[in-house]
Design a protein that fits this description.
Elements: H1 4-36, H2 51-54, H3 58-65, H4 78-88, H5 112-115, H6 120-135, H7 140-154, H8 188-198, H9 214-224
Helix pairs in contact: 6-7, 6-8, 7-9
Length: 227
């Protein structure tokens, strides 16, 4: 049977080994807790690493992580990003745009009341006067005054004839217009050429100018209802 002294001696021999084992266990637990509480800011972005891995030596850790650079972040290309903007705003059709207003009056430079007196034939002859006037260098104001006279005198009819006076044609001339052309009875251009010489806008042999300009003749017509 062991005595009390023998048991105490045995306990004293076992105490250092148990103490060392306890200290080792505490150190191991402390190491695991320290590795688990590593700050998140110290870990590489985008990579999940266990706490035990950070507790390993540096050369082992680098061997586990060294897998090349991270893949680049994918952003939409400028073309695909702007595609939605381009389709969101429809293009304005040219037909919907307001048309510019122009001052072009066509061939007519007389007043509106004179134009209302003309039928299809009269409008055609009034345009003929416009073309002839431009070819002879007349101003548009002079052409307009002559259009007024021709409209109120004969409605620009080539064969118009005054039953009481016998005046004939577009300019309602008493007598022959042969000085402007032999076809003066049927040709509107010949009659209009005679009219230009009569009011003083052009010079033709055998025709005396009765006015200084076409607008002077029109002013006389407004007073006397004839020229």
């Amino acid at each position: 049977m062991e005595t009390i002294e023998q048991k105490q001696s045995q306990h004293r021999r076992l105490l250092p080994a148990a103490t060392l084992a306890l200290v080792g266990t505490i150190a191991l637990l402390a190491g695991e807790q320290t590795s688990e509480t590593i700050a998140e800011s110290e870990r590489p972005v985008g990579i999940t690493v266990s706490a035990a891995t950070w507790a390993r030596p540096e050369h082992e850790v680098s061997r586990n992580f060294n897998r090349g650079p991270l893949p680049p972040t994918r952003f939409p290309s400028p073309v695909s990003a702007n595609k939605h903007i381009a389709t969101a705003v429809p293009a304005i059709k040219a037909s919907r745009l307001p048309k510019p207003q122009t001052a072009n009056r066509g061939f007519w430079y007389g007043n509106a009341a004179a134009k209302r007196r003309l039928n299809a034939e009269g409008l055609q002859n009034a345009q003929s006067l416009y073309n002839l006037g431009l070819a002879r260098g007349l101003s548009k104001a002079a052409i307009g005054c002559m259009q007024n006279i021709g409209s109120f005198e004969s409605s620009f009819r080539v064969t118009a004839k005054n039953k009481s006076s016998g005046a004939y044609g577009i300019p309602q001339v008493l007598g022959s217009m042969k000085a402007a052309g032999t076809d003066w009875k049927t040709n509107a251009t010949t009659q209009e050429l005679y009219m230009m010489a009569y009011v003083g806008e052009v010079k033709l042999p055998g025709i005396n100018a009765h006015y200084s300009s076409a607008c002077s003749a029109w002013g006389s017509w407004l007073i006397h209802r004839s020229y």
